From TrEMBL:
Membrane-traversing stretches: 20-46, 75-98, 104-129, 141-166, 172-191
Transmembrane helix among keywords: yes
Protein name: DUF624 domain-containing protein
Protein's UniProt keywords contain Methyltransferase: no
Pfam families named among the record's database cross-references: DUF624
InterPro entries given in the database record: DUF624
Keywords: Membrane, Transmembrane, Transmembrane helix
Length: 200
């Protein structure tokens, strides 16, 4: 019984430590430049855990991933910011450019593209953490995952919605689970796909 309690405590410690590291490196990058590399580093650590690598120094490994992906991840982040902005602009101007009778259909189409873009962005972190590609290849593979396993995409979307509901309505629980548990679920889903494709 005592051994089980110790193991549970160690798991909790690792997830909490990972949350703290994510926040520190997010702030080191002044927020806007820290989000992408810090999140990629977090997913990379989770990927290592899923592969059974649990013993390496957490801080040194996190720093290595953060520095290694700083430029590339921020370039991808800017590209997605532009794409999200395009979706937002199109959504905002529907009522000005389309007849009221077809606006609902236009909204549905834009929302569909927006959801695909969102899930591609979510997959992006797993893809960067696991593969070594050129910039646009990451986007291609991340988008491919959305359509390759629709059930997995649905699970990820449900988890994404649930996560934000918890964050908004139960901030105390959110502080405990933080971004590390969020990333662990998403990376686990994609890692299972990578294994089935023989990419592990």
């Amino acid at each position: 019984m005592g051994k089980i309690i110790i193991q549970i405590a160690e798991v909790i410690y690792k997830f909490v430590a990972l949350n703290i590291l994510w926040l520190i490196f997010f702030l080191v990058g002044l927020g806007i430049f820290g989000f992408m590399p810090s999140t990629v580093a977090l997913f990379s650590i989770v990927r290592d855990w899923l592969r059974g690598d649990l013993d390496t120094s957490l801080f040194s490994r996190y720093l290595k991933y953060y520095k290694g992906e700083f430029v590339r991840s921020n370039i991808l982040g800017v590209l997605f910011m532009i794409l999200f902005y395009i979706i937002y602009v199109n959504f905002s101007f529907v009522s000005y450019y389309y007849d009221e009778s077809i606006q609902i259909y236009i909204y549905i189409i834009i929302a569909g593209f927006g959801t695909i873009l969102l899930m591609t962005f979510v997959n992006l972190f797993s893809v960067i953490a696991h593969f070594e590609y050129k910039i646009f290849q990451y986007i291609k593979v991340a988008a491919g995952l959305v359509f390759l396993k629709p059930i997995n995409t649905l699970f990820q979307l449900i988890w994404l919605v649930a996560y934000f509901i918890i964050a908004i309505n139960h901030p105390t629980i959110f502080v405990v689970i933080g971004v590390s548990v969020f990333a662990f679920v998403l990376m686990s889903i994609n890692y299972s796909t990578f294994k089935k494709l023989g990419a592990v």
